[in-house]
Amino acid sequence: MLAAAPLAAEGMKFGVAIPMTAASPLLAKTFAQGAEVALSTINAAGGVMGEPATLVIQDTKANAQSSTAAISSLVGVDKAHAILGPTSATVMSVIDRVQASGVPAAFIGSTASLDATVKGKTTWRQTNSDSEFGPAMAPYAADQGYKNYAVVVDSLEGA
Fold first, then answer.
1. Cα torsion at 1, 13, 25, 85 (round to 10°)?
2. Is 103 part of a structural domain of the chain?
3. CA-CA distance, 27 to 148, in Å (whole number)?
4. What letter would DSSP give residue 65?
């Protein structure tokens, strides 16, 4: 089992595991820009415990092998104190490793596979599950007067 890195004098290190070079890099670019804005805000407010925070972005390339390498690097080499990612496309390939590391992580995705898998005190999901979204949207649509409606999702199960 890997252990979460202690906060050293160089400050908090945030890791981001996203598909920067996959078929749809726009979403990853948006997440990376958001992480940079958050980092700037944190550091402008004095950092974490008075030390500047840093950001390390690893490319998962939206595949299991690269996602495993990205998480291994963030946890073992970069010594990230917290991780954002990976996305639904590859989260199931690394979830056990992330949870075993003890590094707090927020997964980007709504895949129903996470319903029974995200557990423990250090892992969270950023979005509702597909299995929760549909039942929640149906009454809302009915309340809005819609008689016919559909929820369309892109299934990345097993990707």
1. 40
2. yes
3. 30
4. H
Q: What secondary structure letter does DSSP report for 4? A: P
**Does residue 117 contact residue 136 with C-beta atoms inside 8 Å?**
no
**DSSP states of 24-55:** -HHHHHHHHHHHHHHHHHHHHTT-BTTB--EE
User: pLDDT by residue (tens digit) across 65-109?
Assistant: 999 999 999 999 999 999 998 887 788 888 889 889 999 998 887
Structural domain includes residue 76: yes
> Is 8 a domain residue?
no
Question: What's 121's domain CATH number?
Answer: 3.40.50.2300
Read off the pLDDT of residues 104-137 as tens digits, 9 standing for 90 and up.
Answer: 998 887 666 666 666 667 877 777 666 777 777 8
Full residue range of the structural domain in which residue 85 is found:
13-127
- Total domain count for the chain? 1
Tell me whether residue 112 is in a domain: yes
Report d(CA 67, CA 74) in Å as an integer: 10
Please, are residues 13 and 5 in contact by the beta-carbon 8 Å criterion? yes
| pTM of the entire predicted model | 0.74
Question: Is residue 81 within 8 Å of 103, Cβ to Cβ?
Answer: yes
